[in-house]
Each structure stands twice: as C-alpha cells, then as structure tokens.
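User: For documentation purposes, I need each entry recorded in a consistent format: the amino acid sequence on its own, followed directly by the corresponding structure tokens. There are two entries in this batch. Please keep commentary to a minimum and don't merge the entries.

Assistant: Recorded as requested. Entry 1:
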Amino acid sequence: MDEHAKPENACALEIDTCKTDVAACKQMKARVPEIAERIIAHCSTEECYTHIDYEPIHPEGFVSNLIDRFREILFPGYFSRDKLDPANMKYSLGQNVSILYDLLSEQITHHIRHDCLRYDLPCSECDQNGQSKSLAVLESIPDIRRMLTTDVQATYEGDPAAQSHDEIIFSYPGIFAIMVHRVAHQLFRLGVPLLPRIMNEHAHSLTGIDIHPGATIGPRFVIDHGTGVVIGETTHIGSNVRIYQGVTLGALSLPKNAGEQYRGKKRHPTIEDDVIIYSGATILGGSTVIGARSVIGGSVWLTESVPADTTVVMDQPRLIYKSAGQYAKGV
C-alpha cells in the first residue's frame, strides 16, 4: 500500500466537508443582493456624496497621461516615448504639442462643462473656452521652461550630491513636483476648475510634496529631499528660495464653518527672496512674512514675521546620555 495514500474514510470526510462549505458559501452569497439594494438606496440620502449624473468628469488616468505629455515637451529628449534626435526633433515635438493640445482642450472643456451642469451655472461656451485656455497654456510653455531651468540650476548649485543636471531632471522628486506645479498654476490662474488640483495631488501621491496650485513660486526654487513638504494656496515665495523636507507653509487654525469667510483670502505666509528653511520648520499665517536672506532653522514654529537678514533657530536641546545598564535599571 502506498504510504502516502489516504484512507477511504478520510476521502469521504473531505467530500462531505466540501459539500458543507459549498452550501455555506451559497447561503452567504444569497445575502449579497439584499445588501446591495440597501447600499444603492443609501446613495439617495444626504449622508452619501455621489457623483451619479450626466456631467463629464476627469478620470485620474488621463491626468497621468497629461502630465507625461507636458514632461516630454518641457524637457525634450528626457522622457520621450521614441528616440529624439536633431533630424526628427521638429516633427516629433510638433506632433507632441498637437497631441497635448487635443488632450488638454478636451479635459478643460470637460471640467468647465462639468461645473456648468452640476452647479447650474450660466453657459460659458465650454468648447471654445476649453480650446482658448489650452492655447494660453501652450503659449506659456517657453516661460515655464525658463523657470524650470532656473530650478534645475539652483538645485545643482546647492547640492554636492548631484552629479549632473541630467540626474536632477531624471530622478529628483522636487523637480517633478515643481514642474507639475508650474503647469497647474497656469491652469489655476486661467480659472480652470478642478483639473489643476487633481494634477498637483497626483504629484503629491508620487513625491510626498503637497503644493496647492494657487501658490505663487518664483524662479530658482529648490525643494531638497521633499517628503512631507506642504505649501498652501495663498503662499507667495520669492526667488532663490530653498526648503527642506517636512516644511509646512500653512494657515493658522480657522474657526468652525469659516470656509466661505476665508476662502480666497491670504491665509498662508510670504517667503521673500534668498530664504532658506530647514527641515521640520512650520510657518503659518497670511500676515507672516519671512524677510529676504533669512534662515529658518529646523523644527522652528513661526506665526509672526521675521525681518530681513535674520536667522531663527531653536535653543540647543539638552541631551541625556544613559548607559545600557542605566536603562535596564530604569534610571
């Protein structure tokens, strides 16, 4: 007899067990339609936010494709789908610009039409509006490129670990987040609803850097490392500013139901030219101004302005050293 063979009674037991499992599974699955009906009914209550209607809405996958197209054009040859050389550059870039125009105008139109229908707004000639705003964004690409060039140069000049400009463009999350922001900021300024915020949140999900598209950021901006950086909507940042990981440029706490009262008003700080803000610093408030050439040390918490040419640091912390034996005794 095969030593691995199962006794007949064991096989019979397994068959009975399987039949019992199948029966139990059927009973469980039979409850699903009833539960589904309750879930569907709940969609009609005020306790559930829904987007079940006929207004077009922008799928997230299109945002990633849109950003990739912008990246190809803003940094020619770095992220191209096909080889880009001097012989085909004019054709290839021209084709990419045409594709980007079609993608962008379609999505801007969808977002404008979405708001018109969903919020019962006056007709804003969605198609024409979408196309004209797309052209305006495309016309701004040389200016965005110039700004990004200064960002890459400033990053290289201030980072001894950077071996080349190529390394920065290919791999630095700060440059990716700044690139997306500079495009999204143009869309925000043109009054395009929702799309610029989705773009910046896509960059946020990839880099850990959260920049509201409304923030105004000057040239030679550097985000070193970047994880945990937060820059609020009404922040104004001058030129040649460098910030490190974990920096928050945010708003002071607001009272309950203050959304309408403070929406659109200056709630976030102003950072003047040539400022350095080290990791973990928190700067809050719309009236807070960090003067030019100031240095804000790590973990500093500020809710008031700082004059130009000022260094703000925490007191030297008192460190306590204990040997392993002292920890064991609870000393």
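Entry 2:
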Amino acid sequence: MNLIQKIQKKIDQKTKPLGALGKLEEIALKISLIQNSLNPELKRPVHLVFAGDHGLADEGVSLYPKEVTAQMVFNFLNGGAAINVFCRQHNIDLKVVDAGVDYDFENNPEIIHRKIAHGTRNILKAPAMTIEQCHQAMKTGKELVQNEYLKGTNIISFGEMGIGNTSSASLLLHKYANIPIEDCVGAGTGLDNEQINKKIAVLKKAAEKYHPVLAEEILTYFGGFEIAMMTGAILEAKENAMTIIVDGFIATSALLAAYKIKPEVLDNCIFSHQSNEKAHKLMLEYLGADALLNLNLRLGEGTGAVLAYPIIESAILFLNEMASFDDAGVSKSK
C-alpha cells in the first residue's frame, strides 16, 4: 500500500460517511503528501506581506496615488490593517517586507528592509525591471522563506501592497496564459467603466511593446518587485516541502510565474479565496485550481489566505484527532 492509499484509508476510517468532510478531506490528503506523513502538523504559520511601487501607476491605472503604498505599509506596521486583525485572530506571525516602495523606511526596525529600487519603471517607457533586479528580488524572496523554514515554519502565505499592481498581474496573466487584455482587467481599487477602458488601453500599449518568451523574462518586463519576491518565495517554499496558502489576484500572478518556472509547485498549493477581481477566476481555471472561499474580497494583503487558515487547520485536526470506527466502536456502512 503506497502513501496515498494509506492516507486515504485513514481518512475513510474516520467516524463519518465516505467523503462526508468534502474539501477538508482533500486538504488533509494534500498536506499529508506534502509532509510525507500520516500524521501531518501545522507548525509556526507565517504570513509575509511584500510591498512595492509600480512606475505604470503614473499612467493613471489606479484610483490611488503611489503614496498610498507607503502609507499602507505604516498602517501594517502600526497594526491597523485588515491583515493585522486577521493574523492576530488566528495567531499567524505577520512580517512586512519593503520590496521596492518609493519611500525610505530606514529608521523603522519593524520592517524587513529588502528594497530593490524605489519602484519599478514605467512599462510604457522601459521594462519594469532589469533581469538583474528580477533575479535579486526572486533571490530575496527565497532567502526570506528559508529564514522562516529554519525557524520551524512549515505553512506559509503571502500578501502584497502596491498601487498599480493589478496592472502587472493583468499583464502577467495575458502573457503567460495568452488571454486577451480585455478579459484580464477589472476594477482594481474601484475603477468605473470609463477608467477600466482607459486602463485596458494603457495595458494593451504596454503588452504590445515587448514580447519576451521565457518565464523569468516575462516577469522582468511586466512584473513588480513584490511580485518577483513572492515568486521566489513560492519556489523556495516548494523546495522546503512547505504548504503554501495562495491568496488572490496579485499573489496568484506570482504563483503563475513560479508555475511557469517549476510546474510541480502546484503540488504544495492550497488556494484560499477567489478574488472579486474578475480575472482571478481565469487564473484559477488556467491553473486547474478550486478556491476554498469566495467572499467577494479584492483587498490584497493576503487577507483571503489568512481567513482560510482555520479551515486548513480543521482538516489537519480531524485527520489527527477524530475517532476511527474501530476506536469508537461504531459499525461501518455495509
């Protein structure tokens, strides 16, 4: 009997009808396989939020000015954002990373200082990053995850903050999945139809400017520092056999890049939430993924991932603590 069969037998012997715990059974099986164990554990959950600015924001693709990125980082550091509330609720260790914010946080020890530059370049004028910057960002993401792994973490999630980053995510989906720009663009932070049409026009112009083929080159031309760091972080989490909780549109664009580099990364992913950003549904379909929740969120920060954590925790608890038919002296179905 192989490991999959052993895990499935353990699940099926619990005091319930076959398959009665639905997606919880799928989660229990997946994490058991990730950990290569019949008795998986969730250890020291960590949530990393990567912040970075985008040069393309200068083209009016967001309702908010770039200054909001830095302002929201201060909100994270002061404990006032949604992600702070939910991480406190579920005892998840939250860490905030300056991947490339157009602001200097040197005097603040609460932030992890990993700034590549003061924001990416405007894609209409030059590729968002140099290949060296993209590699540096990915390497940094890997190092940050490795640090958490060495402290004992085996389940991790990622969030982001960056005015204009839905534009990068839309361009990455367009280039990686060959989906028309019109289908890749949504309301972002709350654009109306006229503003969405303007955003589509800007992104079409950006998409037509460059035609890279390799996965890392696409990320370099159209991504962001926070997205590239998440990509590296996801790849490192896979290398360390960690469970990866995948959040919404921006985080899944980083996963899309990681998937194009290493397809097996999906084996370690649990998709937490289907964003209200319309193109996220297309991303999930492209990856063959089914999200646990659909709460109409489009906040970013990784809120969907953290909200899904107790469901994932419940899957592990039922596997390890629920009685079997033999334990409870309950007759099985005929």
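Summary note for entry 2:
Residues 46-318 form a domain with the Rossmann fold fold (CATH 3.40.50.10210).
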